[in-house]
Amino acid sequence: MGTSNSYGGPGDGLLPSWLDKPTPPPSVPPPASVPPGTPTPPPQPPQAQPPQPQPAQQASPTPVRGGSLASARASFTSFAGSGSRSKLDRGLSGYVRGVGGSRGATRRMGSSRGTAAAILGFARDFQSVGPAGALGRFNLGALAGRPAEEVFARLLDHVCPAGGTVDEAIARRGMLEAIDALAEANIGAFEQLTPEQLEEFVADFISNTIEARVLNDIGVRGITVPDDVAAVDNIQAQLHDAISGCVRDALSGKLTGLAQLTNEDVARTVDRIYEGAFDLIAALVEAV
Question: Do 185 and 152 contact (CB within 8 A), yes or no?
Fold first, then answer.
């Protein structure tokens, strides 16, 4: 597989060097200021509207002690050198154990959980009030009829604002990669999205964020990756497939009755999906 180099962690603290850097986010204009002395308008009677999804505020994950991931890191290094799926499974399973099990791993997802809840809430509104109603809540009504990937790209700053932490960057990168996959699928206008395609977008986002979180935590103290590009591509593909398969199994059946879920229900559903995925990832070693 060629020679190997010691990988001491990504330069930006987020992703390995074999992955592209995130696209710089567009600047967002500040809100307009209100001139002094402007009278406060009288309160308006509330209008009945379905709940609007809001990104949940999540605490940044605490650092992982180096020793707790030593076994997982060794398995990942062995996997990188051999391409052995059993080594990958051991590395992923060891990672979940090293961060405190599925609940600990879910807590580490921080901003990604809030963004996943916002995306899922948007999918709920798509079903409950229709595509136009879902877009209207974010003042994106002008995008009606535009390609689905364009709509989600404009939605990005609403549900996943740019931030300066690794945790926030993981969430944003996860959505950008899910949008790329949507563009490659070339499914057409946003209004033509099916429930299955919306579910696939959610699954892509969650898979991408778990993959990035694992790579960031494992790579911080160094793993060894081959120089051969084809071998690196194989490593990345196997890692993505392993995590994606667990996420899709965990997601199965969780979105039944999505249109009736409250914001609180959506947040709980997201946590169940993440925990279920990490449970399955931890169990991968049992199939070795």
Answer: no
| pLDDT score at 172 | 95
pLDDT tens digits along 38-61:
454 454 444 444 444 444 445 566
3-state DSSP assignment of residue 5 = strand
Longest CA pairwise span in the chain (Å): 72
249 burial (CB, 10 Å; 0-12 / 13-18 / 19+) is middle
Global pTM reads 0.78
Tokens at 102, concatenated? 């599925």
What's phi and psi for 226, nearest 5 deg?
-75, 160
> Residue 182's closest CA among 210, 153, 158, 221?
153
- Could you tell me if 207 and 247 are in contact, meaning their C-beta atoms sit under 8 angstroms apart? yes
Using an 8 Å Cβ cutoff, are 207 and 243 in contact?
yes
Whether 209 and 171 have beta carbons less than 8 Å apart is answered as yes
